[in-house]
Amino acid sequence: MCRSELNFAPYKGIQKSRIFTPHELQDLFQQSGIKVIKVYGNRIAVRLVPEEIQTMTNYDDTFFSKLAEMELYLSEVPSLLGMAEYLQIVVEKLPV
Question: Does pTM top 0.90 for this prediction?
Answer without folding.
Answer: no
